[in-house]
Amino acid sequence: MFDTQSKPYKAWQKYGAAVEAAKPRGLVVVSAHWENEDGSEHVKVNTDTTNPLVYDFYNFPKQYYEQTFTSHGDPKMVVDIQEALKEAGVEVEPVKRGLDHGVWVPFKVAFGGKTDIPIVQVSLPGDGSPVSSAKLGKALSSLRDKGYGIMGTGQAVHNLRDLFSGRPAPYTAPFMSAITSALSSPKPLEATLTLFRHPMYRQAHPTPEHLLPLAVAVAATQPEDRLEELFAGTAEDGKLGWGMWFWKPQE
């Protein structure tokens, strides 16, 4: 968010421009930073249409807590989301929450601090399962026919323990390569789910939540969609992996 010259920053700007050009009816967002707390495959939907910001990080410099992002939800969109989930057999609970930093940080960069595109956040399932996350993505995919966009936001390689300890991270580049190969394969969802069994998966992701949104996003695609890579590479001395991809309907 503060490194305005970085490749990930510029990729988020490209994402924002592409979304604004597409003029979606709204954006349904699933973030690594909201999992249903009950441990089940059920999900929650934010019903607070004022979209307050959740500063869900601790002991950061003061300026992090002074950041703002202005957006709104939409009551009809909330209803459409809940109906789509229920029709697909996903149990859903409406809650008032807001947007966590997994949403508002990239969107602040993408949209320049505010947007008029309605945004509604949906939680990850609570069981930490890529299969449940894929089920969620498939359920949300029906909303595309109503003009909504679907977004998953996490991180391609996310091992903060190795980052902060200074330990080497020889797994970052190979795991990034595995993700890129999975997304470009003839069966991207099946290949994405195999990432959770990759030999380096537990090193790249000591916990699963930052990779699960990718399973949601891929499951929401259609075979005829066109994959565009905005940026896929490493940062922070090669210890974190950044991946931004966009799936567009064929024109």
Automatic annotation (TrEMBL):
<dbReference type="InterPro" id="IPR014436">
    <property type="entry name" value="Extradiol_dOase_DODA"/>
</dbReference>
<dbReference type="GO" id="GO:0008270">
    <property type="term" value="F:zinc ion binding"/>
</dbReference>
<keyword id="KW-0862">Zinc</keyword>
<keyword id="KW-0479">Metal-binding</keyword>
<protein>
    <recommendedName>
        <fullName>Extradiol ring-cleavage dioxygenase class III enzyme subunit B domain-containing protein</fullName>
    </recommendedName>
</protein>
<dbReference type="GO" id="GO:0008198">
    <property type="term" value="F:ferrous iron binding"/>
</dbReference>
<feature type="domain" description="Extradiol ring-cleavage dioxygenase class III enzyme subunit B">
    <location>
        <begin position="9"/>
        <end position="222"/>
    </location>
</feature>
<keyword id="KW-0560">Oxidoreductase</keyword>
<dbReference type="Pfam" id="PF02900">
    <property type="entry name" value="LigB"/>
</dbReference>
<comment type="similarity">
    <text>Belongs to the DODA-type extradiol aromatic ring-opening dioxygenase family.</text>
</comment>
<dbReference type="GO" id="GO:0016702">
    <property type="term" value="F:oxidoreductase activity, acting on single donors with incorporation of molecular oxygen, incorporation of two atoms of oxygen"/>
</dbReference>
<dbReference type="InterPro" id="IPR004183">
    <property type="entry name" value="Xdiol_dOase_suB"/>
</dbReference>
